[in-house]
Specification:
Structural class: alpha+beta
Radius of gyration: 21 Å
CATH topology of the largest domain: Beta-Lactamase
Number of helices: 9
Largest sheet: 6 strands, antiparallel
Strand order of the largest sheet: 6-5-4-9-8-7
Distance between the termini: 52 Å
CATH architecture of the largest domain: 2-Layer Sandwich
Number of domains: 2
């Protein structure tokens, strides 16, 4: 039998290397703007990784200056992330005119305006203008949410092409969804594709509603982008939803001219 030297080992090393990179990102994503300093136990809880894996990855990331040991023994972000953060902010910041238009939308409707992009099997908030009310929908820029629930999620899937539904379902562990949930997801995406907008009440969390419209359809080169309003369900009456949709359509039309983040061009 002839063996190709290195073929199996290279494949195994590549798989292991990719897994290590993915896990390193999971460790980094445990940190947030509100929680920049964490204990090892907190990183284990946030990342869902074994403690031994977290310890090994933390040591590696500290060596790469992505993380560092704080004075109290906990772990915090390292100086090397400053450059990456500045690069990411420049690439993902919306143009000033777009930010101003989203602010006017939030003030006009009284609800939080968010710009979402599809990123793999998640939706990510890339810009937001908060509601002027103290009782409001809160999403931080950079937050990632599943594509299985919510008006913006359904619309992003609908705007991503005919294969998007099956891609999302295939990426979800089969025991995480019931037949009823799968049917509801398919129905929500089909309605969003037909109407070119979406409305949801309590889909992602009780008492919260959302309305969204398409800013840009996705294709092989560029991801779908939607503009949504979110807030307490009590304020999302049928009459108000109609008002919200009109305001969203006008704002989305303007955003196509004022522009999206450079990373989405």
């Amino acid at each position: 039998m002839t063996t190709t030297i290195g073929s199996r080992d290279d494949s195994t090393a590549e798989s292991s290397g990719v897994r290590a990179v993915s896990r390193a990102f999971e460790v980094l994503q445990s940190f947030t703007a509100d929680r920049p300093v964490l204990s090892v136990a907190e990183i284990v809880r946030e990342s869902g990784l074994p403690r031994t894996t977290v310890l090994r990855l933390v040591d590696t990331l500290v060596g790469e200056r992505m993380l560092r040991h704080a004075a109290d023994g906990r772990i915090t972000v390292g100086a090397r992330l400053i450059r990456l953060a500045a690069f990411a902010e420049a690439a993902w910041a919306v143009p000033e005119e777009t930010a101003d238009r989203m602010t006017r939308l939030a003030q006009e409707t009284g609800e939080t305006a968010s710009l979402y992009v599809r990123s793999g099997m998640r939706r990510v908030a890339v810009a937001q203008s908060p509601s002027p009310y103290s009782l409001r929908h809160v999403v931080q820029v950079g937050d990632e949410m599943p594509l299985l629930a919510g008006a913006s999620s359904a619309l992003l899937v609908a705007a991503s092409g005919p294969d998007a539904v099956e891609q999302v379902l295939a990426s979800t562990p089969i025991d995480h969804l019931s037949d009823v949930e799968v049917a509801a997801f398919r129905q929500a995406v089909a309605a969003a594709a037909r109407d070119r907008h979406a409305v949801s009440h309590g889909a992602r969390e009780p008492g919260n509603s959302g309305v969204a419209v398409i800013v840009r359809d996705g294709d092989d080169r560029r991801p779908a982008v939607v503009l949504g309003l979110g807030g307490p369900t009590a304020r999302f009456t049928e009459e108000r939803v109609d008002v919200f949709l009109a305001a969203l359509e006008a704002a989305a039309s303007d955003l196509r001219h004022t522009g999206l983040p450079p990373a989405l061009d």
